Amino acid sequence: MFRPTKLSPLEILLLVFTSTIVVTGVVISRINVQWFEEVYAVEDGFVENWTLVPLLFATIYALYQVASHGRYKTWHFNVLMLLVALFSFFVAGEEISWGQRVFDVQSSEFFKQHNSQAETNLHNMVVGDKKINKIVFSQLLTGGIAFYLLVLPLLYSKKTGVKSFVDKVGLPIAQLYQIAACLLLFGSILFIPSGKNAEILEAGITTLFLLIFLFPQNAWVFEKEQHLIAAKQKAGAV
User: What mean pLDDT is predicted for residues 99-121?
Assistant: First the structure.
C-alpha cells in the first residue's frame, strides 16, 4: 500500500520535536496539572506560539510551489496551493488573534459581546450559545482529518481515478509513518487531565501536517523535473 521510505534529517527532527512536546506535556500534566496549565500550556506561551512556525512555513512553501512550478501544472494545482497558503495563514492569524495582544489592540464592541474571550478572532465567536470553535474547528475539522488520514490514502492506493485526480491537483497523501504519528498524537492527549490538552494537540498536529506537506507519499508531484517532463510531453503531443 505504501512505498518504503528512508527518513530525511528534517523528517526525523520534526518527529522528535513533536514527540518531545507531547511526551513532556503528558508527564508534566500528570505530575502537576496546575504548572502544566499556568506555565507549559499557558496562553501566549511557547507551545501555543509554536503553532505559528509550521503554519507560516506551510504558507510560504505553498506560495513557492505556485511561483516555481505553477506554470507547468494545471489550474487545479495552483488553486489548491493558494488555498493551502490562505488557510495556513488564516489559522496562524487566528492563533494570535491577528496580533491583537502583540500590538496591544483593543477589541471592538462587537467582538467583546460575541467572542467568548473578548478577542478579535472568529474561532472563539459564540453563535446561539455555541462556540464556532467547537462546531467548525473541532467537530467538522476532526471529521475532515479522519477522512484525510484514514480514508483518502486507502482510496488513493486502490482507485486509479482517485490517484489520478489527487496527483493532478497536487494533494499531499500521508505516508504510513505519518498517519501513525498523528494517531499517536490524538491518543496521547487523552492522558492529559486538562482542557489545555488542546494546546498540545494544536502544536503537534500543525507540525505533523507540515511534515505531510513536505514529505508526502506522492512527493513526485511537487518536483520541478516532473513538471518539466510533463510540459515537454504535452508540447510534443500537440
Answer: 72
**Per-residue cell: 11:** 523528517
Whether pLDDT at 228 is above 70:
no
> Using an 8 Å Cβ cutoff, are 211 and 59 in contact?
no
Domain residues of the chain, as ranges?
10-33+44-217
Question: Can you tell me whether residue 188 is helix, strand or coil?
Answer: helix
Q: Stretch 39-62: mean pLDDT, rounded?
A: 94
More confidently predicted of 199 and 120: 199
Helix (H, G, I), strand (E, B) or coil at 238: coil
> Please, are residues 2 and 175 in contact by the beta-carbon 8 Å criterion?
yes
222's grid cell: 511537487
Give the whole-angstrom CA distance, residue 32 versus residue 192.
Answer: 11
- Count of alpha carbons within 13 angstroms of residue 24, beta-carbon side: 17
Exposure string (b/e) for 140-172, b if CB count within 10 Å is 16 or more?
A: eeeeeeeebbeebbeebeeeeeeeeebbebbbb
Distances (CA, A) of 44 to 32, 101, 193, 236: 20, 9, 20, 55
Residue 47 · residue 21 · CB < 8 Å: yes
Do the Cβ atoms of 115 and 125 come closer than 8 Å?
Answer: yes
Count how many residues are written for the chain: 238
Cα–Cα dist 80/78, whole Å: 5
Higher pLDDT, 184 or 227: 184
pLDDT of 235 > 50? The answer is: no
Q: What is the CA radius of gyration of the chain?
A: 20
